[in-house]
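To whoever is on call:

I kicked off a structure prediction for a single chain this morning and the downstream step that reads the tokens threw a length-mismatch warning. I double-checked the sequence; it's 324 residues and nothing unusual in it as far as I can see. Pasting both halves so you can look.
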Amino acid sequence: MLLEMVNKLVTPNVVSWNAAFSSCEKGEHWGEALRLLQEVVNQLLTPDVVSWNTAISASEKSDQWEGAVGWLQDMVNQLLTPNVVSGSAAISACEKGEQWEGVLGLLQDMVNHWATPNVVSCTSAISACEKGEQWEEAFGLLLEMMNQLLTPNVVSWNAAISACENSAQWEGALGLLQEMVNHLLTPDVVGWNAAMSACEKGAPWVAALGWMFEMVIQLLSPTMVSWNAEISTCEESEQWDGARGLLQEMMHHLLAPNVVSWNAAISAREKGEQWEGASGWLHEMVNQLLTLDVVSWNAAISSCEKGKQWEGAFGLLLEMVNQL
């Protein structure tokens, strides 16, 4: 229709172009939306805030963070004041591009010059810090949200917890999980899994196990990620008996342990110098028709070595060679 207007010598105005931009964007034809905006500039028309917002959003959705920032800067150069939509779209684009420093810069520009950030822009910023393993920045942004009377949603909390997980900050992850509950928000499986994975990297196994059972009490079904993280926590803490109990609980919940589960459990046996149990679990993996990897064999062989069972170690080595 827009081309028909041009062909009939009816000059489209900014409203016409904006409707075309929006249609392309909503139809996920982001490249066409950007091409149309360039055509507006070529026609010496002045795009308004809606035009620029559509271009920034289209760049964000097509994973072009540099383009989004460029359009935002062009908007400022045209003496137009970006609004919260402009800023949020540009921040989201940089978050997708894993540009956490750029995100923080844009957020500060919003606060100083443009508009008050909303939950969407702040959550995108926290997520960018998570991807950049900047747990302190993520934590600070979450606190700043609450100081500004913005209510973080489940996604905001999950991103902050994941940031702690990525940086092996298990105390921070569990603290945020507790704070989430204190703020009357129910953590979902994503948040729990991130916290459990953080525990795997250093938390006392008893504390981690307590949170695992709390997850069950909340009527959430732990996933394979949850269980494996807990078994790995037991492995790191050399709690082979806890690992055994978790394997049994997995099967009780009708979830078959995978190779990662068994490997962590065998490694826990190995660290606890339980060579017979380690070998037994190795053969249980075979009975479950699982494909053993080098981690499985090495842990079982190492447990025999620690138990001074050279014949057992040699026998497992032969089995390993025959499996190749």
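Update from on-call: the warning came from a stale cache, not from the record. Cleared it. Sanity check on the structure: The first helix runs from residue 2 to 7.
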